[in-house]
Description:
The structure is a homodimer.
Chain A: H1 5-30, H2 35-52, E1 67-70, H3 76-85, H4 125-139, E2 145-150, H5 157-168, E3 174-180, H6 195-204, E4 208-213, H7 217-228, E5 235-240, H8 265-275, E6 312-314, H9 315-329, E7 333-337, H10 341-344, H11 347-352, E8 357-359, H12 364-376, E9 380-386, H13 387-390, H14 394-403, E10 408-412, H15 430-436, E11 441-443, H16 448-460, E12 465-468, E13 473-475, E14 490-493, E15 500-504, H17 507-521, E16 526-530, E17 533-535, H18 539-549, E18 552-559, H19 564-572, E19 580-584, H20 593-599, H21 604-612
Parallel strand pairs in A: 1-2, 2-3, 3-5, 4-5, 7-8, 7-9, 9-10, 10-12, 11-12, 15-16, 15-18, 18-19
Antiparallel strand pairs in A: 6-13, 11-17, 14-16
Helix pairs in contact in A: 1-2, 1-3, 1-8, 2-3, 2-7, 4-5, 4-12, 5-12, 9-16, 12-14, 17-21
Amino acid sequence: MTVETSSVVPALKNIATRLRIDSIRATTAAGSGHPTTCCSAADLVAALFFSEMRYDPKNPQHPGADRFVLSKGHAAPILYAAWSAAGYVPHDDLVKLREFTSDLEGHPTPRLPFVDVATGSLGQGLAAGVGMALNARRIGSDYRTYVLMGDGETAEGSVWEAAAMGEFHKLDSLCAIVDVNALGQSRATQLGHAMDAHQRRWEGFGWHAITIDGHDMARILAAFDESRQTRSLPTVILARTLKGKGVSFLEGAPNWHGKALKKGDELDRAIAELEGQLVDAPADLPVRPPSTSRRDETRSAVAPPSYKKGDSVATREAYGAALARLGSADSRVVALDADVKNSTFSEKFEAAHPDRFYQCFIAEQAMIGASMGLASRGAIPYPSTFAAFLTRAADFVRMTAISNLNVKMAGSHAGVSIGEDGPSQMALEDLSMMASQPNITVLYPCDAVSAEHLLINAASHAGPVYIRTSRPKTPVIYENNEAFPIGGCKVLRHSPQDVATVIGAGVTVFEALKAHDELSQKGIHIRVIDLYSVQPIDAATLTAAGRETGRLITVEDHYLTGGIGDAVARAVAPAGLSVERLAVREIPRSGKPEELLDKFGISSRQIVAAVQAATHV
Amino acid sequence: MTVETSSVVPALKNIATRLRIDSIRATTAAGSGHPTTCCSAADLVAALFFSEMRYDPKNPQHPGADRFVLSKGHAAPILYAAWSAAGYVPHDDLVKLREFTSDLEGHPTPRLPFVDVATGSLGQGLAAGVGMALNARRIGSDYRTYVLMGDGETAEGSVWEAAAMGEFHKLDSLCAIVDVNALGQSRATQLGHAMDAHQRRWEGFGWHAITIDGHDMARILAAFDESRQTRSLPTVILARTLKGKGVSFLEGAPNWHGKALKKGDELDRAIAELEGQLVDAPADLPVRPPSTSRRDETRSAVAPPSYKKGDSVATREAYGAALARLGSADSRVVALDADVKNSTFSEKFEAAHPDRFYQCFIAEQAMIGASMGLASRGAIPYPSTFAAFLTRAADFVRMTAISNLNVKMAGSHAGVSIGEDGPSQMALEDLSMMASQPNITVLYPCDAVSAEHLLINAASHAGPVYIRTSRPKTPVIYENNEAFPIGGCKVLRHSPQDVATVIGAGVTVFEALKAHDELSQKGIHIRVIDLYSVQPIDAATLTAAGRETGRLITVEDHYLTGGIGDAVARAVAPAGLSVERLAVREIPRSGKPEELLDKFGISSRQIVAAVQAATHV
């Protein structure tokens, strides 16, 4: 450093004070926001940005730059103030906070180049940080990852899922900081300032825990130094702070969460008090440059599948096979598992690429969160588990969508067709959960060939993707070189005499084909469509089928709401068409797969009955 | 006890051996299931059912009976075997495991009277146990709650949310048991048999932790005794066990998770080995009778709301007011918060009924999980938080539905109308998440009067309910005595000249009313419907409106999928009608509420434009 050590601490204290001032001014200008949570974190943020972190203020996405995740996203104003102090955000922009025309949103989103993952749903940042640290290892970089949390958010179980992952994967490049200001939104936090209790929790999860006064700058710098020198385990810095620090009428005071100071006397008094804390010290501190060492990514063509028509292969098994081959072709591809790799067949990827396979144990939130972090740094993560258990990570899915991250989620064991294990293991709302997010692509292969192609296509499609696979073996019906563009569908049966179109996906494609054959024998012809891309959807083909055959009947191994029936109905509504739906309409139970398909209304027999019904039902 | 102490241990060991035999036989008969995880837990289960727990084998729902939650739900066969040994389940029924016609499902569900909450999604049982223990305190009963977990499932963050709640609420009637068999589904668990590491985690969360050999019956009994005598903090018994215990070729062996033994030699060898372990001891042990002390519930009429038409009141605020009054009228009503009580206004309930208000801190999974436990024991829980953060608990919502529990969930701050805080705080998929579950009632009031009535109606409606409230103040439009039956809607504007029907709910009702007034001035008349009950839905009124006005236009502060548009479309599809939809179609951003309603397509201006569009769009 060019600045003498003796002057670094006062200079950093000044920066912290200016960050407080900027945060308070911005929230007052916006008329809302969280100034007091910015004040508690200001010394920590100043130390990170102007002593500890190595980055390029002109290029926040520098691949070797240390990462900073503001997990306590409601402290957004201080993040913006820090990047302004670093020279990236024009200082005048800070007071445009929360305006529609500004990217300085109420909580950080990746519209801003210095935000890797959106935060604001508390307890997510650490899992993302785990993913970023795993990515550093993957690319052979020594960049470090810093995650700033509030103490309130450590009530979220996802924090402890991520903590366990950090312990297991020995992520010594990961440093969590907990801003223990002891005040939540509505009351004191559970542990308050009982720093020993905080420390016990983190040490219980195998972390190197350092408790400090979060307003003692020299102690902060020493803690970061200690973290950097700690090997084989991640560090958490537990910083005792005061919410509203620096402004006497805010410090540690209740009922100030999420309140901007009023313009006029209230604001003026706060700013005057803070300005009075500025001391004589160098105005600027240099930023440490980012690391440059890393491995290049490698990419080549993916070998095509090699099935024979009529082979009997579960789509989940084809998924695993294709994932392993994709991993060989593209070094960016990684896989994450929640201890079901032998059911989802992600174990095939592990066998081929053990260094890019990340075990998360039974912790689906951490799995998706780590995927967010990995994706934000250039990896293409394929996290997979039973589709039913992806609901565990629904809020992470939501934030993945808000962040528009390149995460390729896969859920196996869809629907009642899993059989005997019963409803807790059956995904019947996963299509709804995924398709609700407007930018998530939802794919649903019915056979091994389409499963492989869709998995490969997902890798080159920018943005989040969901792939739904099934438990039962199904026959291969496509040629290996068939194309499955995202947004398409396949018309499997058609004739000029078609009196209805039956639209299925996954296992119900085969029920529809069976129904077609049965009805044919009675001289009744139906069109059959494989809707392998649920979102985006092939509205043109569906609308044409509706117009030509007069009736559209959807059949899905999913509950009635938010799945294939609703997607088709939305697609054809502009043409004034409506849709008849076969779907699971009640909570199912254990039984044999074929038995359940029939009892819950989505078997070939039920399709035949629906087609033959004289009127719309 | 009538049996001499010296013979209790061998008698319990024999029971454990018989539970192992029954579990193995049942899974082999079913051809699937998890026998080895039953074997590791058998000694613990035998001790619980035939020494520790007080219950009535003839009446599993006895209100004073100790509760047993099998959180590791895949060990279902041993639960069924234990209730058979207790005399409740006919022994011959055990081999009907997993059949469609048997209630002995693959994972336990409340179809069985001895199952309070469905399990099988791991990591949920402890939160339910927290709720049951809170309920014991509420009704003044000394029943105790036992939760049996696997070590693998303690990777789920929800376990630690529940642990923190157990610590905070000093639940000394709660005893968790972790069956540390060290093997997950696909590999060794993270901590394996490192019992000290397990103990550190639990002690870090403030629990009284007792580590034992889980196959040492005397030590098991002593641990339960120690738990019963522990005051002010919950106990966890960390039991070191072997998966497959009792069968030499299964004990601690990998790759046996979720596999039934083959009929013939494999089964015969296992049974013979187990039968060889039976010793001379009394065949039956008495069961301790349940506790009888408890307070009676009290119920009276709820005072009606008292608003004036035109008053400006946020539905979330009315929710809080009504909840407090409901609590005064019905002792079963309790409220749970995730540290946003001053935003959801559940603080009004806390002020009136502090002893029935349970703070969960920022831990939404534990909040819904505890609600499940409370509801299973007769309470009527109203957990509430920002609707966006209920997505955090999506898997608990799923299991609440599978359990058909009487939980009344409320989500505030719906949609883009929250404004400046940005997308992370906006619930735009909550209707979809809730309505996907076929038995969840979904209510969405637009004004204070309807909010109060719907909250009250929810209490007397059996089963899970979701109530969506909004952040902005909206005018009161209904008389205090207006009725809001579940499944109804309100036609707010209609005339014989209506050219379209606009269907809104919540804030969009007022956009629709504005649009109505604007269009009226141009001589264009529209029908306006307040769809306060999204599920069930008033198909008759909607269909009639569609037929009479020719066009149905939905407008919702929600994403396109799974919300009001889809619900209305499903309702009117049997009549061959389709729906035009105004909904949020992309990830939104920060801004002023009115600005966002307009930019994201759901303002009165957008409704006017849609009505005036010449054709379907």
